[in-house]
Each structure stands twice: as C-alpha cells, then as structure tokens.
C-alpha cells in the first residue's frame, strides 16, 4: 500500500494514538484476527470494556480503526471494529512537510 502524505495534525493524531501499548495491541489484534466486537476484543486483550472503548475511540479519531454497529441474531447491538488500512512514511522529509501544515501550536 502506498502511504498518503499526512497533514501535520493527522500525523500528530496517528503518532499520539499509537504511543500507547494498549492501543498497539488493539491494532495488532485487529490486523491479525480481523474485525471484532468490543466485548470479544476486551476478553482477548484482557482489559475492561470501558478502557478498551476509550482506546478504540482514540484510534478511530486518528483514522487507524473503523467501526460499524450491527445487530446480532438475538437483537443485541454489537459495535464491530476493524483496522483501517494505513501506512505512515516517517522520515525527516515527511516530518518537515507535515510541520508546514500544522494548525496546533505547541505550548510555550
């Protein structure tokens, strides 16, 4: 897959989302096992559903996972997540290009 050039804000969001070991495990589990719903994924990763939901939200906001709500055969709403296709080309040149588009100002 060819990586698209991320804006500075998109790059910060992706790197921030991936800077947590739980979120790395989530992406790895979804990449290896395919789409999964929150309860099952929480059991597989041995973390609570509320904590997993927070991590999934951060990953989804960064565009690294996608979600889709579906109804099971017994009428339960299941929120399925899947790893989004992404590639981050992280070089000094891509960072320099991304910095030009930053809208976020670092704290002084």
UniProtKB/TrEMBL annotation:
Transmembrane segments: none
Gene3D superfamilies named among the record's database cross-references: Winged helix-like DNA-binding domain superfamily/Winged helix DNA-binding domain
Alphabetically ordered keywords of this record: DNA-binding, Transcription, Transcription regulation
Domain HTH arsR-type, residue spans: 13-86
Pfam families registered for this protein in UniProt: HTH_20
Entry protein name: Helix-turn-helix transcriptional regulator
Gene source species: Duganella dendranthematis
